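Name: MFS transporter
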Amino acid sequence: MNRSQRILLLDNLLMWMGFFMIIPLITVHFVNGLGWAAGAIGLVLAVRQLVQQGFTVVGGMLGDKFGLKRLICFGLMVRALGFASMAFADSLPLLMASAVFAALGGALFDAPKSAAIVLLTPPEQRPRFYAIQGVSSNIGMAVGPLVGTLLIPYGFQAVSFVGASCYLLSLVFSVLFLPELKANEPKPRGSTMKGLKLALQDRPFLHFQVIQIGFFFLWVQVNVALMLHATQHGGTSLTAWVYGVYAGFTSVLQYPIMKYASKRYSSQVLLSAGVAFMALGLGLMGFTHAPTSILLCTAVFAIGNLLAAPSQQTLIASLTPPERAGTYLGVAALPLAVGGFLGNALGGVLFDYGKHLHFAALPWVVFFAVGAVTALLIGQFQVKKQLDQKTPTAV
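Structure predicted for MFS transporter:
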């Protein structure tokens, strides 16, 4: 693994740590601490996700036009300013503005960072790299809230500034150590909008993105359905255990399992199997209320995620032309916007509707059905190999 790849992994760790240091504690501070309406904070978080994922395609297009490193660095700076400004948010409009500003920063660096991975990592190394990146993400996801919790007695301002400093530190590493990036292939003629048009006319690529809506619908349930179920049947202590089992499994087991499995099975097979495991874990959750059983179902869900997440990234990279990597990977963020929004919105609604119908298993039946269909569609998807594609390089 070269220095540029290690910097990308370090950046990824700092980004996830800073993000999960702040976002989970927004509800704690503004709802529990200041007494704001939970619905208002939910709206802030939903708008943040929609803005970031919805505008990621713009960040990808700009990265193709102006350079990936430049967009990564600019996005990190904007994200840091957005999170730091939350320290001064004393009204809902100010908090919303800070969240949107932070989301725009994420939209600017997200697709260029993914494109940089494609350019810096040869195809045969990508399953291993994405597995290691998943480990770094989960470490950041676990450490961030812990640090935020330790800082909250000193005020939410301390949480905001330390979380923002993670992005500033990532900015420093990126400026100093990330190379300027470009593909071996010459840039196709035409405007930046032509790159978007090409992505939107790439039927195999778009077909796969539509399928991924189902994956992200399941993926967000770790923060919605699993938390609701754990709180209902075990309180906050069980919620902490569920979160710990999920983060622990994915952090410790993802790399060794993917190292073994990627040598024996294709990314398509692993993604289909991973989604099937995620669906099974959620489906079984509807038939148990005991804390131990809930944790076992969470472990099944986590195993599915550790198989699916790096495999999904590898497949997207294989469908992406290196000379249009930023634009393509920007479009690839849209399934998270749609699937994440639907998963967040419907997760709670299905719980309430299931209670109304006296059918508590309703959300879990729906999750299992969505996951089963998604796994089947992934298995039937025809992956088009780009045999003439040259390995990209960084200069």
